[in-house]
Input
Amino acid sequence: MLTSLERDGAAALDARDPLAGFRERFVIDPHIVYLDGNSLGALPHATVGRLKRLVAQWGQRGVRGWDEGWLELPLEVGDRLGSAVLGAAAGQTVIGDSTTVCFYKLASAALDARPGRTQIVTDVGNFPTDRYVLEGLARARGLEIVWLEDEPHPDVLAARLGSSTALVTFSHVSYRSAQIADMAAIDALVADVGALMLWDLSHSAGSVPISLDGDHAPLAVGCTYKYLNGGPGAPAYMYVSRELQSELRQPIWGWLGRRDPFEMATGYEVSGGMQGFLSGTPPILALAAVDEGVRLIAEAGIDAIRAKGIALTEYAVALVDAILAPHGVGVGSPREVARRGAHVALAHPRARELCARLIEAGVIPDFRRPDVIRFGLSPLSTRFVDVWDGVQALRQALQG
Output
């Protein structure tokens, strides 16, 4: 890769980028450098048009819209997401509630499916909402949480698993460091002890290839507002492998998870397949926005997106080493490209202050306690010159 320290080198990389044209497909303020797509993805132009059409349908058709395709969206968009992003065959993914609620549903269902087992295994660096949900479940059920001090590695995990393990859950890509967990190896270890594995894909879906079916993953959840560009608060998804769907029962029994929901019958009878993991009325406007983000990922292709993500993060690491390391900035992400997602963690003791100064200067990253600035390099909307501009702005903040 060309690692010129001049902006012309970054512009040359953009000129050769096969995904460069996708940037025009997003609404991007030309006055800022947006490096936070791993927290909230950019708005696709197609989403604006889709929502205008949907609002017009709502106005013209009213309640009749439910019979004109709205009710099918959670499963239809779920299948498109599974195919384009998750490596999942049809009938195993559904768009549901928030990530927190979806995680609670699947974690609770997994624990119910392993009665008599008393331990949950996760890591102290897992995303906070996952940890909090697990703490609540453990307290309510009298279970023990086994905390891994480091990010999950098969060799470390193997020593902590046993006949008491009910549920193991990690993030596939660490929200802090961008380290990618070895999904296939971990799935195999967890299956060997008879426990269930639940993945959080929020920081990997749409940025790195995933093969839930190929890696024999039982369960997964993830948000849609990062690399999938579904918009703020967009609904999350649930994946349940076909083999487990008849065994698991999620705990929030709502009317749309019931067989024949419009019968309004007495008593709950769970619907078959992924419909049974739904609860309440689906958020149609938000689902349409998710659908447009998924369609963009499918059009670009996840392999091409991954290649661009590697190139962006490699360029960022090279610039940090050359320009920012003399100022005390370290790379807090794995240096091996195969182990790193699409964001780069930059470590510095003054990270909080520096992040605020970057935002004032029109460069938008984010801060993670205690000392990390994250540069989120969303492959479809981030240019190499954005990386260069972000690094230069941080250099200026350090010198100021």
Notes: Residues 77 and 291 are 6 Å apart (CA to CA). The two ends are 31 Å apart (CA to CA).
